Amino acid sequence: MYRTTNSSYGSGVVTRNKEQMSQKTQDVDPMRIGIENIGNTCYINSMLQCLFNTPAISTAMKQYKDNKNSTELFKQFYKIWFSIQAGIEPEHNDIIQFKKLMNQHREFDNFNQQDCIEFFHVFLDIVNTGFLTQPFFGQLTYQINCQNCNNSSKQTEQFINLSIYIEQACRLSQLLSDYFKPEQLNSQEKCKKCQKTSPLIRKTNLSAPPMVLVIQLKRYDSRQTRSNNAIEIEQSLILKGFCDQSPLYKLYAVINHQGYSIYSGHYTCLIKAATCWYYFNDQRVSEYSNKVVDDELQKSQNSYVLFYQRQ
């Protein structure tokens, strides 16, 4: 079992006010405008398209007013978004400037192919803008039980995406159920109550489901061996059994990856529109029927990052 959260975003209780909890964001009808690839930047382009078409972010961007406290990276992000909203392909120099600002983080100070989910984490960390990060925040609660005396303790951890290894061909809902199964920890620590070393069982609960659930399907192991197992991607998910609220989520974006390793190959994305899907391949944008995408998602071998909007 492999769990991933981003500890740099802190830990503790995720809180939302009543207005946030009841907020119904409008679905986004994507603009058919691509983004230039300036040299192995398809991982950036695909993630930006998904962020631009995240309903909560799109709504907030339309209401945004220039703020002197905004980071330079966010201002450049806004420029690219604004061009696309105006139906204009972003300027070459704006894309170059965005990449230069990302170069401040040494991991991206090159034109090598990168992992789009790592870009997602670093970008949100650098821009440090609430309405960009808040939709993705969720909280996991870990309950650890001593098998000798049944003493239990709880810990909480925030996350902005779930990362799940693919070990076999199955449905996405099965992968999620397996991810949240109780697991035995290989710990030599003594129980604080009975002072004995005994097996510890950890149960994980999704205690604060995010507005946008981002799921990374990890197809590569530590040796960069790729799993080509086909996954059935359900477009509607009800989170039962590991989340008390049993929320409903609907798929609105998919990042696909093809290649021999996560740091090579090519990234593209699919964005759901009102009556079809748009396929973004850097500057090239194509329209796909719902039937074509439905069939593709039934046995998906290239899906890498999934975006679900809470209903």
TrEMBL record:
This is USP domain-containing protein. PROSITE patterns: USP_1, USP_2, USP_3. Residues 16-26 have a biased composition (Basic and acidic residues). CDD domains: Peptidase_C19. GO terms for molecular function: cysteine-type deubiquitinase activity. Residues 33-311 form the USP domain. One of its GO terms (cellular component) is cytosol. Residues 1-10 have a biased composition (Polar residues). Residues 1-26 are annotated as: Disordered. One of its GO terms (biological process) is protein deubiquitination. It comes from the Eukaryota.
